Amino acid sequence: MAINMPTIDHRRFRTTLTIGALLFSGCTLGPDFAPPASPDVKSYLGKEEASQTLQNMALGKDILGLWWTLFRSPALTALIDRAIKHNPDLQAAQATLTQAKETAVAKEGSLFPALDAVASGTRQQISGAQFGNPAAGSSLFSIYNTSVNVSYTLDVFGAIQRQIEGLSAQADYQRFQLEGAFLTLAANIVTTVIQEAALREQITATEDIIAAQAQQLDVIKRQVALGGASTAAVLAQQSTLAQTRTTLPPLQQQLAQTRHRLSVLVGDTPNTAPAVQFTLADLHLPEQLPLSLPAKLVRQRPDVRAQEAVLHAASAQIGVVAASIFPDFTISANAGSIATEVGDLFVPGSFIWSTGANLLQPLFHGGEFLHKKRAAVAAYEQAGAQYRSTVLQAFQNVADTLSALDFDAAELKTQQAAEQAALDSLTLTQTQFDLGAVSYLALLTAERDHQQTRLGLIKAQATQLADTAALFQALGGGWWNRGNLATAIMKDHPKEKPAMPFFELLGIGN
Questions:
Q1: 213-227, 309-323, 430-444: least confidently modelled range
Q2: Which residue from 150, 221, 336, 484 puts its CA 20 to 30 A from 437's CA?
Q3: How far is residue 22 from each of residues 8, 314, 329, 419, measured CA to CA in Å?
């Protein structure tokens, strides 16, 4: 799969630098970034996306921003809402995003003149020997100075603009890292809830099997007492019952660990388990699944957009290096007052001022700029390769999930058929038992077989639900169709309650 990306034409690069130097006017050197074109891919699997799955694939339909609501579980939605406000990983990603944004905005200040106020006072003694006249003795006096200084660096070749562009791209990267972190968190909560529901029902089915096998054992023991069965049958049934009982503690342990994981995901300690206990009946399989067009996938996946931002930052860095080869212009001015007494400041005759300009033109740095330019171009090419790899991985994720949903549908049909057959057998055996045609032991065996097929059906249902959530995650999670995530995270963290007192931040004690 070919992905069209901006390329660095070295001849054009040198020509741009020469023209910029000749014009000697405000310009921005280096390549202007353009997002890579979407891959020319028509489908994810090379065939019709929907085949034997029970869910309808709506190709081209947009994804809901709150995609987890399609499972129609208010308790699940409440858990994710809580996680948005309390999950520490999201809060850390949000803080990193704020840092990146503020850094980019701070750099924009370099485009404007810098204005500083300076005040100083000096007490000093000088000797006439300093002026070649030792006989003049020494003199003790004070000097007070106040001034306002202005300096302005002209961004003639766009170095500052490119630096701001690169920092803004880094802020975009952190934004999509935050979106990716939340998408992963939401998917993990959904799949953990599904796992809890499946484990709870597996435990119930296993307990029913154990009860049926225990009843079978009692029947066989009575048969032995009446001479209708051998001791070997009792031993065999005891072994079967013991083996089934060994499967129950691991399921109970997994359920406890799943509850702990769910608590931590929503930002609570493991001992604060969610009040709701989920079952598969609480979760509804979405009947229609929106499936983004392949051409739109690269604009919707947070990881792809984050890697695009890395590529953008690398492109901007080329411009920074390009501008560093050319002159750096700075103009400055200051005006103030100087006097030997504080009261004489600002009186007539104490006013002083100066203006100046500075030109710095690199001449010879031992090939430093040449190799910096090559390094910047190599960094851009590396980011481009990583971008292509991320795009390929994104398409693989979607293709794998679509294939899994197909196989899930096939397995679910098989398990439903097996469960129905076992239920029909149980119903028939119950009727025969009521008529006295079969023994109670045969009825217990039919009940046990039915519970065994229930286990398979439970696992198949849970797998299909989990893979449905995985599809929403693989398609990007619909972040573009909901409100600002950063605002939701910071809602319960107002600025008037900083994590650290201001003076402590400055390193000043009480």
A1: 430-444
A2: 221
A3: 22, 26, 15, 82
Q: How many other C-beta atoms can be found within 10 angstroms of the C-beta atom of residue 427? A: 12
CA–centroid distance for 398 within its chain: 18
Per residue in 349-361, pLDDT tens?
888 889 999 988 8
Task: Supply the range of the domain harboring residue 81.
Answer: 10-124+140-497
Residue 103 included in any domain: yes
CA pair distance 406, 411, nearest whole angstrom: 9
- Contact between residue 219 and residue 305 where contact means Cβ atoms under 8 Å apart: no
Q: Give the count of domains, the chain.
A: 1
- The pLDDT confidence band at residue 50, using thresholds 50, 70 and 90, is very low
Sequence-distant (6+) residues with CB within 8 A of 392 are 1
Please tell me the distance from the alpha carbon of residue 369 to that of residue 17, in angstroms, as a whole number.
13
506 found inside a domain: no
User: Residue 388 corresponds to which tokens in the numbers above?
Assistant: 């292509």
Question: Would you give the DSSP letter of residue 346?
Answer: T
243 inside domain: yes
User: What span, in angstroms and rounded, lies between the C-alpha atoms of 428 and 432?
Assistant: 6
How far is 189 from 166, CA to CA, in rounded Å?
35
Please tell me the predicted confidence (pLDDT) of residue 230.
81
How far apart are the C-alpha atoms of 185 and 79, rounded to whole Å? 11
pLDDT at residue number 223 = 83
Residue 502 is assigned to a structural domain of this protein:
no
Is residue 43 a contact partner of residue 49, using CB atoms and an 8 Å limit? yes
Spatial strand order of the sheet with 138-154 comes to: 114-127, 138-154, 328-339, 351-360
Token pair for 181 = 């972190």
> Which CATH number is 435's domain given?
1.20.1600.10
- Name every residue whose Cβ is closer than 8 Å to that of residue 450 and which is 6 or more positions away in sequence: 419, 422, 423, 425, 426
- Partners of 143 in beta bridges: 122
Q: Is the pLDDT score of 508 beyond 80?
A: no
pLDDT for the residue 16: 47
pLDDT tens by residue, 96-147: 999 999 999 999 999 999 999 999 989 888 887 777 777 777 888 888 898 9
Of the candidates 264, 245, 262, 304, the residue with the CA atom closest to the CA atom of residue 476: 304
Picking from 101, 187, 92, 189, the residue whose alpha carbon sits closest to that of residue 479 is 187
DSSP H or E run through 114: strand 114-127
